[in-house]
Specification:
alpha/beta; Rossmann fold; 7-stranded mixed beta sheet; 11 helices; globular; AB_hydrolase_1
């Protein structure tokens, strides 16, 4: 019997293999603004959809990142990839680290874009409750997006992204992933890991800041570096797509 695979979008046919994992409000569609700037001769990109999201919306599961890591490995095995790099946005930062732990010898490099560290967002119960309230409320989702981009962008854009997140994710999956990125802590499992890591943060992101990256990712990964993207908040793939694509490929290309 053929193993079921998660949905994905494949771009390029280059020798350098890269798999990208989106954030809580996102899907594989989040990465499409980068595509015109990507070097599709040098890279092959796969933009992955979690169970319950996007092209995997109808796929049931436990909706954990350990499960997502196994789904990633099944997909890259299907594609014939031996070694590959990872990009993770927001909660995707947690997801790519779970892939790293599941297959440490196969990961060449990692790039975190406004990426949640392995300690999660360390939300207490009150903050968790506030985030649970956005699950069924598009207006509250839009408010979170606006805050995370510095309350400086068009409200219509925040509302559009919120509406798309509701359209492209199942409510049960969306709710289930929350505690796994917001309140879990597996930092002891990644401390000292030698994989090269580059963190990209937006200058207007109020939460995923340089200070947080320094205290978490940079403290735990000895070969980690940090770059701040100008004129961006929490969603640089939408806010500064060409700049982000350029910075990512500068990092991911062979030395």
């Amino acid at each position: 019997m053929t193993q079921a695979l998660n949905g994905y979008v494949k771009v390029g046919n280059g020798p350098r293999k890269v798999l990208a994992m989106s954030g809580w409000f996102g899907s594989a569609e989040d990465w499409q603004p980068l595509v015109p700037a990507l070097d599709t001769d040098a890279f092959t990109y796969v933009f992955f959809d979690y169970r319950g999201y996007g092209r995997s919306r109808e796929r049931d599961g436990a909706f954990t990142f350990e499960e997502a890591a196994q789904d990633v490995l099944a997909l890259v095995d299907h594609l014939g990839w031996d070694r590959f790099s990872l990009i993770g946005h927001s909660m995707g930062g947690v997801a790519i680290q779970r892939v790293l732990l599941a297959a440490p010898g196969r990961i060449e490099r990692m790039a975190g874009v406004s990426a949640v560290p392995a300690c999660g967002s360390r939300m207490d119960e009150a903050r968790l409750a506030a985030f649970r309230a956005v699950v069924d409320d598009a207006a509250r989702r839009a408010a979170v997006i606006a805050f995370s981009t510095g309350n400086r962008l068009s409200p219509r854009w925040s509302a559009h992204l919120a509406d798309e997140s509701q359209r492209l994710s199942r409510t049960d999956a969306f709710a289930a992933y929350l505690p796994h990125w917001a309140a879990s802590d597996f930092s002891s499992e990644v401390q000292g890991n030698a994989v090269p890591v580059k963190l990209f943060i937006g200058e207007h992101d109020p939460t995923l800041t340089a200070d947080l990256m320094t205290r978490t990712w940079l403290a735990w990964y000895p070969h980690a570096a940090l770059e701040t993207l100008r004129n961006a908040g929490h969603y640089p793939m939408y806010e500064v797509p060409v700049a982000l694509a350029t910075a990512l490929e500068d990092w991911l290309k062979p030395a």
